[in-house]
Amino acid sequence: MARLDILTYGFAFISDQGTFGFSSISLITQGYRKILIDTGPASRRQLLYKALESKNLSPEDIDTVILTHLHWDHCQNTDLFTNARILLHPRELDYARNPNAGDVNAAWYIAAMMDKMKAEPVSEGDSVADGISIIDTPGHTKGHISVVVEIDGETATVTGDALPDTGTIARGVPYNVFWDMKDARESVEKILDTSKIFYPGHDRPFRIEGQTTTHLHGPSQIEVVDSNEGGHATALAYRVDSHRRVNHDPVQKE
Fold it and tell me: CB neighbours (10 Å) of residue 226?
């Protein structure tokens, strides 16, 4: 039986200075197998080290890394896992090796690094281990995948940015679509058909029962720190909107 833990929780903040790339990193433990789903941005590298240490693990103990997609906020720490097989969709890798001009999210440098790592293609229906399988969930990106896991007699789906937050359920699409809106909508429907428990890319894990959505665990707040030792501190304004605008920028098709 597999165990699914969150090493770093995802958040979905926007600011007038740019977006925050705080994505979730999930760890599946099945017997001796240690499987990581996404590796997060470089800005959270130390946090990832500490999270692994809390499980008495080091990067060398991870035997498999599954990358839902090759956006920088989900894959920049992949180089740490030198002993691991790196699993990702071939369409995702092919695109990231030669992204369209203006695509600032595609991590082409990670794609180039794959030639030196144990990169293997996976797609719909592939089994990573007993009770752990891949489904294709394009839309957010061209070759996005999600991971379906059997845990304690239930099915959970690690969704990446195909279903990045609970708001996706009401919207019907993720808040960023860089490939295809129709594919994105169909992927959300497909994910919601797989299970009742979801581990999204930029939100806390949640369960859906009928019309009720309940977060399972994880922090509901973060701390932001500045200092005034230079004579001043930057003020922060926090606004909560009732809806999040969908950013439809099909840059991967241009």
Answer: 11
How many CA atoms are closer than 13 Å to the CA of 9, on its beta-carbon side? Answer: 15
Measured distance between the N- and C-terminal CA atoms of the chain, rounded to whole angstroms: 44
Q: Do residues 122 and 89 touch, judged by C-beta distance below 8 A?
A: yes
pTM: 0.97
Residue 44 is given by DSSP the state G
C-alpha distance from residue 170 to each of 8, 167, 185, 243 (Å):
25, 6, 11, 9
Residues in the chain: 254
Those residues with Cβ within 8 angstroms of residue 78's Cβ, 6 or more apart along the chain or in another chain: 39, 65, 67, 86, 110, 113, 117
Which residue type sits at 149? Answer: V
Q: How many CA atoms lie within 13 A of 193 on its CB side?
A: 8
- Greatest CA separation for the chain: 59
Instruction: Output the CA–CA distances (angstroms, integers) from residue 124 to 25, 32, 128, in the order listed.
Output: 21, 25, 11
Ordered structural domains, the chain, with CATH: 3-253 (3.60.15.10)
Tokens of residue 168, six digits = 């996706």
| pLDDT digits 0-9 by tens, 161-183 | 999 999 999 999 999 999 999 99
Q: Rounded to the nearest 5°, which phi and psi values hold at 175?
A: -80, -10
3-class secondary structure, 164: coil
